[in-house]
Amino acid sequence: MPEAPASRYLSPAQVAELLDLEPDEVLELIAAGRLRGARLGAPARWRVERASVEEYLVEQHEDSRRRALWRESNAASFPELWVPRRER
Question: Whose CA is closest to 59, among 32, 27, 24?
């Protein structure tokens, strides 16, 4: 049975509240293709698929994880690369 439209689609204001953004920023994410949105209804208004918001959050989490690993690797110390080997 398909989802009810009210639970499948969110308004930009609802998405903005979930993501702690401004509605204009949500529209920018739609325009950039980072959120899937469509103009629905009469008059046509932007709606965002709930699944798209979840995918965006997963992508943001993965991006944060990779950035943290990158910072960690840049801060790592590899003394074996700097200390000359002793002559045997």
Answer: 32
Q: Output the pTM of the full model.
A: 0.69
Alpha-helical (H) ranges within 1-88 are 5-8, 12-19, 23-31, 50-75, 79-82
The H-or-E segment that residue 45 falls in is strand 45-49
Using only C-alpha atoms, the chain has a radius of gyration, in whole angstroms, of: 22
C-alpha distance from residue 76 to each of 27, 45, 68, 83, 87 (Å) = 39, 50, 12, 15, 26
Rounded to the nearest 10 degrees, how much is the dihedral formed by the CA atoms of 6, 7, 13, 16? -170
Binning pLDDT at 50, 70 and 90, where does residue 87 land?
Answer: low
